[in-house]
Design the sequence.
């Protein structure tokens, strides 16, 4: 597996992988595919990933396996103005091709986020995860993340839950 910085040339593959991952985890949580994949959401995904890849403040990394995109990581300053970007980073997204779940791609991308905390001297990592995404919640819990008591509305009247990872 090779992990490298994402470029705009990766954009179509990132959006495609993100869509497959969304269908897998939202679908497992009971959302119909028609609510997960819409033209509007596809445009928003493409615009969001394009902005993240081009951003000076966000970092996007891709994991490649045998020349194919296997996973993507996006991280950067916290979205919440209540959190200090001098001490905190947000793990915005980790998505892995569902056909490669359980093969270490997510763990490798997560390790890059933890290394980012260390390299930048940051004390805290934060993220949000959809409450019904039990697979992701278990993954983050295994990697030391704990609920922080925050939430915001999400699809299907199911919130996104905040989690934090203290870093020594």
Sequence:
């Amino acid at each position: 597996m090779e992990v490298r910085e994402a470029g705009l040339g990766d954009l179509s593959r990132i959006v495609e992988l993100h869509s497959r991952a969304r269908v897998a985890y939202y679908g497992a949580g009971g959302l119909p595919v028609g609510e997960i994949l819409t033209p509007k959401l596809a445009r928003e995904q493409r615009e969001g990933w394009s902005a993240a890849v081009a951003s000076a403040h966000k970092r996007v990394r891709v994991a490649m396996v045998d020349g194919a995109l296997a996973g993507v990581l996006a991280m950067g300053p916290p979205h919440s103005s209540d959190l200090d970007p001098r001490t905190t980073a947000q793990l915005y997204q980790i998505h892995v091709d569902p056909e490669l779940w359980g093969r270490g791609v997510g763990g490798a991308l997560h390790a890059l986020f933890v290394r980012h905390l260390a390299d930048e001297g940051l004390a805290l990592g934060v993220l949000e995860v959809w409450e019904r995404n039990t697979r992701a919640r278990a993954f983050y819990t295994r990697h030391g993340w704990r609920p922080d008591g925050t939430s915001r509305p999400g699809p299907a009247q199911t919130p996104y839950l905040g989690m934090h990872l203290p870093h020594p």
